[in-house]
Every structure is written in structure tokens, then in C-alpha cells.
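[09:14] KT: can someone run the structure on this one? pasting the chain below
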Amino acid sequence: MPVPVSQRDLNIMALLDQKYTDRPYYGVRRMWKYLQLDKKITVGRDHVRTLLRKMGIMALFPTRNLSKPNPAHRIYPYLLKGLDIVRPNQVWGVDITYVRLAHGFAYLVAIIDWYSRRVLSWKLSNTLESDFCVAALDEALLLHGRPEILNSDQGSQFTSEDFIGRLKAEETVK
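[09:31] RB: done, C-alpha cells below
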């Protein structure tokens, strides 16, 4: 069961969210300095990093210390380069974002048909585990058939055994 976020952290997260909206290129160090100097909030840089990760926020221009992919996960090739998308169910896209709520955050996964730009399925969760992504995929497959290609950022939820296993069962992954 996830640990609830303290009110102090919620307030800090709200400030970080506002600053990120204004300055999406700010990384951990700049966000930390913003809290220290502008808002007079004493907080550790590592805690700011933790809160930003919890919110799913990262600078638009990554720094030199990029995280490495998990070597245990297979990297799938990018299949969309030069591809003309001309029909429904040819390409679906899937992604996760966070949604700020009155008392915390939730994570939203959405599956979109790239041709029609229609949202095929979406689910909310209070954790980043893969089960809500698999549930969204199951719903999209049930209601709309299967795509030829499912494009994702290859985050851990989308390269998990459950998610990939479901795609293999539908013969979407070869």
C-alpha cells in the first residue's frame, strides 16, 4: 500500500508543478534553488528529486546524467519512421501522465489511435505499477480490436512481462 504524501510535500509539489509549467527546462538543481531562494523553503535536493519523480516531471532538456535503461528489459525497434498512418488500428500510442488532485496525485494512462486521434481507453491509478496499464490495454483491445503497432516510450510499465505478454497474445509483438 502506498505511503500517503504529507501536506508539506503536497504544498511543495504544487509549487514545483507551477514552476515546471513556467520553466519546463528546469532540472532538479534549479527547482531546488527556486524553493530555497524564492520560496524560502528548506528542503534537500534529493527530496526535490524524489518529489519530481513521484510527479513524473523531468526537464525537457535532459542533463548529462541520464538514467540508463534496465538491461533486463528488451528494447523494441522504432517502427514509425517514414510510416504513413492511413487507417484506424494501424498505430496506437500509449503514455502515462500524472494528474494533480486536491490531496495528492494520480497517474493516468491513455491509449490513443494515431489515425483518428481518438482516446480508445484510459485508466487512473495511485501507483505506477503496470496493472492499470494492462487493464487499459485489455479494454482497448476488447472494444476496438488490435493495432498493428503499439507505440510507447518503453517505460517499465510498457516493457513489463504482463504488458508484453498481453500484446504477444494478440500477436501485436513479434
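[09:33] KT: thanks! The helical segments are 7-22, 28-38, 45-55, 131-144, 161-169.
[09:34] RB: yep, looked fine to me
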